[in-house]
Amino acid sequence: MKAKNLSKARKERTRADKRAQGDANALKFGRTKEQKQADMKAQLAARSKLDGHKLDK
Q1: Alpha-carbon separation of residue 30 from 19, 25, 34, 44 (angstroms)
Q2: What is the C-alpha to C-alpha distance for residues 27 and 33, in angstroms, rounded to an integer?
Q3: Could you give the CA distance from residue 31 to residue 17 in angstroms, rounded to a whole number?
Q4: pTM score, two decimals?
Q5: How far apart are CA 51 and CA 43, in angstroms?
Q6: Smallest Cα–Cα separation from 12: which of 3, 4, 2?
Q7: What would the pLDDT profile of 1-54 be if each residue is shown by its tens digit?
């Protein structure tokens, strides 16, 4: 086993920590493409329904 430079080991540990934090955020906040498209479709339908009930002056 080859000894590592301390700064390289520190950088690797930092990268691993950031990767773990990113993965946790992806699980917590991430949404699939299908979920985003379904939400967009629902928004458009609601807007269309609302616009259909407008009264013209």
Answers
A1: 15, 7, 12, 22
A2: 14
A3: 22
A4: 0.49
A5: 12
A6: 4
A7: 566 799 999 999 999 999 999 999 988 888 888 998 999 999 999 999 988 888
Which amino acid, residue 31?
R
Tokens of 39: 């939400």
Beta strands in the chain (DSSP E): none
Helix H or strand E segment including 41 = helix 33-52
3: helix, strand or coil: coil
Within a 13 Å sphere around the CA of 23, how many CA atoms are in the beta-carbon half? 6
Q: Which two tokens stand for residue 32?
A: 């699939």
